[in-house]
Amino acid sequence: MTPRATLRAPRGRQLLLASTAGALGVGLFLAGALGLAPPGSPGGAGPNAAPAGAPAGLREAGGSADALAADITGLQQHLREDPTDAPALGRLGLDYVQQAKATVDPTYYPKAEAVLTQSLKTDATENFTAMAGMAALEAARHNFATALDWSEKAVAVNPDNATLQGILADAYTQLGRYPESFDAVQRMVDLQPGTPSLARASYTWELRGDTAAAAEDMQRALNDAGTPADRAFARYHLSQLAFDNGDAKTALTHADAGLRETPGSAELLEGRAKAEAALGNTDAALADYTSAVAKVPQPSYVLELGELLQSLGRTKDAEQQYQVFRGEEKLFTDNGVALDSDGTLFEADHGDPAKALALAEQGLRTRPFLEMHDAYAWALHASGRDTEALEQSRQATALGMRNALFHYHQGMIEKSLGHRDAARTELDQALAINEHFSPIHAPLAHAALAQLGAD
């Protein structure tokens, strides 16, 4: 067990916290791996089971997809023989949600809803497995208020389950209820120090701009990891932390190390591609992005590939990727997923500002998280409403998160309002955090600074 450590908290608060939904996914866990069903029950712990406390996204790493598929097959077979087994139905629902994430196939969400609903019909009182499944499902669909309701119900039944505290923290985070999220993560760490809780702890520090503490906790998550899949998960997020703070060489080192243990991981290929592009190795970056998208057509990967192609003047190829992105987004909406920040930023940058604004307004109602405030600000800017945009942009940076894109957006909004000194400050900050934060927008930040200097 990882020993308890007390982290330095802003304004004197001492907490032990780790990564959550914005960076690590939204509370997607396998029931059998997390103690949500008794050991020995159908599909429970066995040679192919995930490690206890498996964090969101773990099943994407090498080898673990087979375990998930095997768990689903075993549960389906068991339920054909005993269709009223409420815990098994709940665990199957959780597995379907995780399968949707691992394969980027949202058609699993209606399947998950059906079996979770059946599970709750069988046992609606003590069935925290199905309650956790509904929380994970609603979070995956970006219905965070409903996800919080289900999380609270599950925690009320089983308050000492560390995983449930993590799911609760995820919902609080996406709803912008940060102190409550931090408290839930603290409880998770107290209950079960380890890779999942330390990963959540890392993100709470990242949200508040303490990247040293974030990296320290994620390194501890890596040290505590007991499987290649766990280590790949931690390596990816260490790579992301390094890249987001302007250290592409360290980002590349972590991505390479992860890929040596889990070759072909789409997540690590995407992480390596970003680092390669920042270091000027665009051929390698394009190859890795292409491989990642072929394995897992995650919309964010597709968009990153398109923008890299656009930055290289390959506009026709970029537009093909943007069409794929639109198709993926439609697939998600057709299966009940509410679009928010990614769709908003895409429409503001590459599509229809009016649509961007509509998506942002809806997104902010369901997900008043930092990223959504930033996306709403950019949509308002694209629509010429810069005074309102500045207010939203300041909300995005209110916790102190070091995010180059947030500061770039705020700098461009300040520039449009004629606030030259503020614009220079924000644009300088964006490039100081990460000079290669975007192949499209980083050059525009330099150009804007040059114009402000000339003026």
State the main characteristics:
Serine Threonine Protein Phosphatase 5, Tetratricopeptide repeat; single chain; disordered N terminus; mainly alpha
Task: Lay out the secondary structure.
Layout: H1 21-24, H2 64-81, H3 86-103, H4 108-122, H5 128-140, H6 144-157, H7 162-174, H8 178-191, H9 195-207, H10 211-224, H11 228-244, H12 248-261, H13 266-278, H14 282-295, H15 299-311, H16 315-334, H17 341-350, H18 353-366, H19 370-382, H20 386-396, H21 404-416, H22 420-433, H23 441-454
Helix pairs in contact: 2-3, 3-4, 3-5, 4-5, 5-6, 5-7, 6-7, 7-8, 8-9, 9-10, 10-11, 11-12, 11-13, 12-13, 13-14, 14-15, 15-16, 17-18, 17-19, 18-19, 19-20, 19-21, 20-21, 21-22, 21-23, 22-23
Biased composition (Low complexity): 47-60
Pfam family, one: TPR_16
TPR repeats: 162-195
Please, could you describe this protein's structure?
- The protein contains 23 helices and no strands.
- The protein has 455 residues and is an all-alpha fold.
- Among the domains are: 22-192, Serine Threonine Protein Phosphatase 5, Tetratricopeptide repeat; 345-455, Tetratricopeptide repeat domain (Serine Threonine Protein Phosphatase 5, Tetratricopeptide repeat, Alpha Horseshoe), CATH 1.25.40.
- Helix 5 packs antiparallel against helix 6, helix 5 runs parallel beside helix 7 (162-174) and helix 22 (420-433) packs antiparallel against helix 23.
- It is globular and about 75 Å long.
- 58% of the residues are buried.
- Pfam families: TPR_16.
- Residues 41-60 are annotated as: Disordered.
